[in-house]
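Lab notebook, page 48
Experiment: co-folding of the full assembly
Goal: obtain a model of how the components sit together before planning crosslinking
Operator: M.T.
Materials (sequences as entered):
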Amino acid sequence: MADKVVVDCSLPDKKIVANVSEAAITSLVKAALAGRISTETRDTKIAEIVSYVTDVGALPDRVQVIPLTAAEETLRQADETEGLAQQAAHETEDANANTLRDRADAALAKLTAGADATKNGSLFADRTAQERGYLELLGRSDAALIRLLLRKLDSTD
Amino acid sequence: MTFVVVPDKAAGDLYTEAMWDTFLRDNLNKGVVRPIAEATLTGAAASIEFASIAADWSHLQLVLYGRGDAAAAAIECWLRFNGDTAVNYDNQNVTGNAAAASAGEDFALSRIIVGNLPGGNAPGAIYGMSIIDIPHYAQAVNQKTVNVRNSHKAGIATGNIVATLRAGFWRNIGAVGTITLLPSSGNFLAGTRATLYGMGGI
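Observation: model returned without errors.
Model output:
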């Protein structure tokens, strides 16, 4: 059976205060607070800290490694099965999306090549730079629009 | 808990215990961002659970550095709140992989997907990471929303490194008291480290 790690956030972190003696705490606090607070306040703090450390020493570790229960193991296996199925579905979606993107890229390349060839052809030799710019812009987004525009330009010549 | 603005100190002011408690103890314990709990795995584990999370923070942030041991190039890392394994979670992602960008959504899953991590078939010593923001987690009025930034690597050839931005939603208004991280298959590998931070408010 696999293990799970459980961190009980309501418990103090023992490792922070482990192996600290009362004498060491007293010495540290006195040195840190020398001249900054009253002796009475300092001693109160020292007593609180010593008490805290003593209490913490009696507490269990906040990080526990616990074997999964049978029910949790069953759920884990069900999760794994569902997760694999979902992953396979996503991979299929990605493959389909890639195929569509490849097709779109190929169509755009063909369209762009066509628009460039047309732009450079004799039909557009006498167009203004602005007209050619519009045609290029439209040709990149919609082949039908370029054809309509070509007809319109021809009819007005 | 909110941050209490620290007053100026004038010459001759007595630094009282009340001031210590308010401006040092309470501000450092609850008024700013500080670590609440942490687990660094020394052996494989099926999940990492942060339980009994105090309700007096404004927001939470969970930082994960991890890897799975399942026989795959990558695994998903999942998150659940309060042990809820029902299909109460919705997911959206935007993913960058080599030069390709993609996006996807999943409704009514049994978990929030908080990114991919290298699996057992990825080259050794490669770990992935996720930073998971869980704002306003302790209120019990509205549903919870999660944002994730995930980095994942499965090799040094093109297509093997991935950056993902993820959104997760829990269809529940309950206050979050427990957060569970679990791999989509197998275990988290030793060396995986998860740290939970609490953020104070104003």
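Interpretation: The two ends of chain A are 84 Å apart (CA to CA).
Next step: discuss with group before ordering constructs.
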